[in-house]
Amino acid sequence: MRSIILGIFAAFFFAFTFILNRMMDLAGGSWIWSSSLRYFFMIPFLLIIVIGRRNFKPLLFEMKKQPGEWIFWSTVGFGLFYAPICFSAAYAPGWLIAATWQITIISGSLLAPFFYELVHTDKGPIQVKGKIPFKGLAMSFIILLGIILMQLEQANHLSPVKLALGIIPVVIASFAYPLGNRKMMDICGGRLDVFQRVLGMTIASLPFWIVLAIYGLITVGPPSREQSIQSGLVAVSSGVIATILFFQATDLVRGNMQKLAAVEATQSMEVLFALIGELILLNSAFPTPLSWCGMILVMGGMMLHSYISQRKVIPHRQNANA
Which UniProt keywords apply (predicted)? Predict the structure, then answer.
């Protein structure tokens, strides 16, 4: 239950990403700076935390052992996640991006066969290939149905081109984020805490952000003062607070693909938080009755997903220990 609560709090802070990115785009800011500045600003905050906990040297030791793996999977988990998210903000409103992002619920479940989970048997713990949690996946489709209902009326007002450019990059990000996160959990093997892992992945993804920033200087020029400030807010709320909360939640269920999928399902709450944020900050239209029905489906689907995922694990452990 603790992992679910942490996941919901992470969703609250993640929601600021979609709202602030849309605000920056409406003000004329480039998606290049919205994405790269966030990770540049994250480093000093994370360094203070990790150095203050005297955990920086162990992090460097782990990164030196497999530098190539760190750079590649951190670029996947952070670079191919956030750059597409910011790119899509130029073509679709924040609520639609937040809604589309919930595909990560299904994406995370579909990635299960590519990883191994720890199973306790009479002969001791063994590693077995993960299986797609089909019952939990069915609950994920209920969540997505609710999201579709919420955005049905607004999506009809977008052109097909904007709809595609606003959705396809987010679909790519929905696979990249859980893939990079899970691979880094395997590489770290529980030897690093969540602060170390987030800092390590941020540092390891710097080559990607530096190249993107150079491209930005050449094509669109330097960022404005307002965009720099807003990117800093995203770095603190989403990059530091939300990421640490989410990684802490996934660490609590590391090795259990079913519970991991349940934690990732909590991110559906981002839609509700993003909607509330847009109502307050961007003066968006108040949701219709159809949208409220969708919200109920999202909430109910999330709770059912969590219940079924945990229910499947308990009997499995009892049989293994018998």
Answer: Membrane, Transmembrane, Transmembrane helix
Number of domains in the chain: 1
Query: 265: which 2 tokens?
Result: 């399902």
Q: Is 28 exposed, middle or buried (0-12, 13-18, 19+ CB in 10 A)?
A: exposed
Task: For residue 85, give both structure tokens.
Answer: 């998210």
Whole-model pTM: value is 0.78
Phi first, then psi, for residue 132 (nearest 5°) are: -65, 120
Sole residue written with tokens 């269920």: 253
Whether 175 is covered by a domain: the verdict is yes
**Predicted local distance difference test score (pLDDT) of residue 318:** 37
**Range of lowest pLDDT (39-43, 61-65, 259-263, 314-318):** 314-318
pLDDT at res. 21 = 87
Tell me the average pLDDT across 116-128.
54
Identify whether 322 is part of a domain.
no
| Residue-range definition of the domain harbouring residue 53 | 2-316
Is 321 a domain residue? no
What's the per-residue H, E or C state across the chain?
A: CHHHHHHHHHHHHHHHHHHHHHHHHHCCCCHHHHHHHHHHHHHHHHHHHHHHCCCHHHHHHHHHHCHHHHHHHHHHHHHHHHHHHHHHCCCCCHHHHHHHHCCHHHHHHHCHHHCEEEEEECCEEEEEECCCCHHHHHHHHHHHHHHHHHHHHHHCCCCHHHHHHHHHHHHHHHHHHHHHHHHHHHHHCCCCCHHHHHHHHHHHCHHHHHHHHHHHHHHCCCCCHHHHHHHHHHHHHHHHHHHHHHHHHHHHCCCCHHHHHHHHHHHHHHHHHHHHHHHHHCCCCCCCHHHHHHHHHHHHHHHHHHHHHHHHHHHHHHHHHC
